[in-house]
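Hi R.,

Here's the chain you asked about this morning:
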Amino acid sequence: MYDYPELRMAREDMLLQEEYYQPSKFWGEASTTIVDEISKFGINNFRSIPTALDFFVPTYGSPGGGFSRDQSEALLKYFCNAWPEERKPILALQKFLSGHFSALSDYRVLKASDDLNKVPYLHNFSESKVGNPVEQFELEGRIFSRSSLNYLLGISMLKKHLNEDLPRTVLEIGGGFGTLGEVLGSSGISDFQYIDVDIPPTSFIAQYYLSQIFGNSNVFTYAQSANLETIEINALPKISVLCSWQIERLVGQIDLFVNFISFQEMEPHIVRNYLSHVTRLGARWILLRNMKEGKNISRGSEVGVVTPILGDDYLSMLPNYELVDRNTVPFGYQTVDDFNSELLLLKLKRN
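And here is the predicted structure, written out as tokens:
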């Protein structure tokens, strides 16, 4: 078993905070299971542990692609046994079940949409292998996962509206394992700052991931910030990972706020509280990716939320912002059962 005292300290501290900053119903059991699995398998393997792949390490193949690993293996075995000489169909089935075709589709959208001459530069990005990933694809010599392509597509959409208004200080709530920090931290933005606010254990995992990529000296951690009453944004290094309740201690201004998918897993009053701090910190741009129709409602043992947030709810929670763009195709995703993972881009209204 692996022991992580800082993670344990953060979890104990979390239990003393207001309900806003503790795991929502959707995340309650999962967060405890993730801690157990990290302790069992080691944080260096976090991108291959079962619950992570279900909750915060998105996949194109199993389980995110709709087929379980057992179903995929059974389908492929059946096809290989029934038509052993049919090499091309077998290859096609392999690439479909693995998610390769979906990854390639997103990559093609990225190549077609991104302006290579404008910062942030996205065309040189290649994802790290920290965390022992099992969900990556090599496309034209670079490495991508569903997580990185999700963010790359979102930033590509954002770039179309920035003109000369380049965001340098970026706050994200619920940043998963830190992919946005990895993408923007290597995109050529000068004086760049990325702040990820999340509940432990994902905050601890993101801290580990980004420290491995950018070096410990460039990452401000929970252990360094736990006893600070105020956290001055302009004094932070390139990368900071804070726990959820520490958003109240942030002082200063941000340029861009991002939330991809995690708001849809929270209850409306929790999201409203977080967005009040985003407004307080003066974000000029807000980029969201969430389910237009809302997350499924929890019933019995089924994982879900108590009250889903619909796409339009975000607009009502942000009265000081105007909608700039709203997109499902090509930058978002439409599920096979007709749910829409859409992107919303908002800009601070002028006085």
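One quick note: The chain has a mean pLDDT of 95.

Cheers,
M.
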